Amino acid sequence: MLAIKVTVDERSFKEAAHILRAVPRAVPRVFRRAIGRTVDMAATDLKRRVGSQITAKKSEIAKGISKKKSTYFGSIGAKPFRPGLLAFPGTKEKKPHGVSYRLSRTAGRKTIEHGFIATMPSGHRGVFARGRETRLPIGEARGPSIWKVITDTAGLLKACTDAAGDRLGKLINDQIGVEFQRWNR
Asked: Which residue of 30, 43, 115, 157 has the smallest Cβ count within 10 Å?
């Protein structure tokens, strides 16, 4: 699984511990809140950057991104989740020709010949196409995986990682200020 790791380095930990030495049990609270917010903000940033590459809905992109948080470590991962073509705005059925869709913001529209939009008995709606000229098998058409979009886009992962690192330092300082305000009450 592809991941952006958010960790606290030893130097930052020692500096924060030294600054907060008078406030009891403050260091874990500071890092837990800073890492949690950094992970949330980095995941949002990653969703926006992926959304600038493909036309899928943000909620569908979010299904392909996982977050993990702990006191001194956090990560944002990309799963090999492939959203269905109905998650892409502009997917429409052209009765005699098939289904037209647009995946990328830079590429044009494409058509699945003899494709159709249907609702399964379970309630799932999707774009389906027949495998051969016969009736069966029928397969669902899906867009690119979120993981593939991230790996194929040059510089996207590095930009998200750099932004998360910058945010973590700022948020640690903000949380240290919050602890001092609480302690001085």
From this structure: 157
Burial of 45 (0-12, 13-18, 19+ CB in 10 A): middle
Contacts (Cβ under 8 Å, ≥6 apart) of 142: 82, 83, 84, 85
Taken in order 15, 19, 22, 24, the sign of the CA dihedral is negative
Residue that has been written with the tokens 């809140």 in this structure? 33
Domain boundaries, the chain: 2-80+146-183, 85-140
Contact yes or no for 82/143 (Cβ under 8 A): yes
3-state helix, strand, coil in the chain (%, to 5): 45, 25, 30
| pLDDT for residue 53 | 92
Structure tokens at 118: 């249907």
The whole-model pTM stands at 0.85
Alpha-carbon dihedral angle through residues 75, 42, 12, 34, given to the nearest 10 degrees: -90
